[in-house]
Amino acid sequence: MELYRDWLRPLIFATDPEWVHGQSLNWLERLGPFEKLVASQCCHQDLRLAQRLWGLDFGNPVGLAAGLDKAGQGIGMWGALGFGWAEVGTVTRHPQPGNPAPRLFRLPEDRAIINRMGFNNPGAVALAQRLQQIKSAVPLGINLGKSKITELALSAADYQFSFECLYPFGDYFVVNVSSPNTPGLRELQQARYLREIFAHLQGVNPAQKPLLVKIAPDLSEDDLSDIVELVLEFKLAGIIATNTTVTRPDLYSHHRQESGGLSGEPLKAPATAVLNTLWRLSEGRIPLVGVGGISTAEDAWERIIHGASLLQLYTGWVYEGPLVVKRILQGLSERCNQYQLGSLTEAIGLAHR
Fold first, then answer.
1. Catalytic residue among 136, 147, 155, 179
2. Which of 82, 138, 236, 346 is the most core-located residue (most Cβ within 10 A)?
3. Do residues 242 and 215 touch, judged by C-beta distance below 8 A?
4. Is 178 assigned a catalytic role?
5. C-alpha dist (Å) from residue 266 to 93, 165, 194, 239, 261
């Protein structure tokens, strides 16, 4: 029997999901004195899984996706929990409470989550103050969103404020234009808006810190083609594929009709399809981050061979628990043995060759 899946998860899933989420982050803040003990149980070391990308050293390719730690509460512990990197946020220029509760729903029959949180976060200034006090042991990304009160026409300046405010603290930054839970936000995936946002941010990026864009899984191939062209034009560091989906495939849970973004197992196929399309359209020239429905080593391997340089977890971590990163990394080490790889980077895009 497995402690988390067989004993703890049923207890956790019997409790309000947002309350549990908040309590879990509060506990992470208190685990600092036990960091080495946690790391001894949750980490897997294999030099073949490390890579250098954007001038950053990643001890392994599995990172924490944005959304789980919006305010940076767990920054001191994500490395000890096995992650090779972490992304905090989404953070907006203005503090905002997000959408009314209930706004977070587990769909255990579908191994999925629906959320309509609405970028609830303390704001860029508060996050900057926190990051002045604590350092991450792994590369740290900061995911930037548009404030709900900001008009679409003023989005570029809104992103720029957060970018400049948090610039000293992020190893890389992500432009999130793909959450379905802020009215109008996904319209920013149109080329005319993206062009202005990218121009603003790259214009105030003196150290040329890596800048990525996170996109939805619900875009057409024409939309994806426009995004690829803009990423290349503005020399962005990469694309995160993908955010949650607004579609509702065949689901079993009674929560299936809740509005918001769907993540987890049902997102696996569409997120992989978008990854494939981006690799083809960019001819492998753009580093891609695979996220959505990853919870096993096989899921991770499939995303890597279809073009992902790095991976991110959120829902898979909720369902599989704190040892999931270690299990995924152990499985990737086994793939390296199986295919006689000197480095996991040799497998990136293997399915396209």
1. 179
2. 82
3. yes
4. no
5. 32, 36, 28, 21, 11
Please, is 311 exposed, middle or buried when counting C-beta atoms within 10 Å of its C-beta (0-12, 13-18, 19+)? buried
DSSP readout, 205-253?
-TT---EEEEE-TT--HHHHHHHHHHHHHTT--EEEE---BS---S--S
Q: Mean pLDDT, to the nearest integer, of 1-20?
A: 88
Q: How far apart are CA 338 and CA 6, in angstroms?
A: 31
pTM of the model: 0.95
CA distance to 101, 222, 238, 283, per residue, from 190 (Å): 30, 11, 17, 22
User: Does residue 1 have a pLDDT over 60?
Assistant: no
Q: 88: which 2 tokens? A: 């905090």
CA distances from 173 to 54, 80, 140, 157, 334 (A): 12, 22, 9, 16, 32
How open is the CA angle 352-267-159, to the nearest 5 degrees?
90
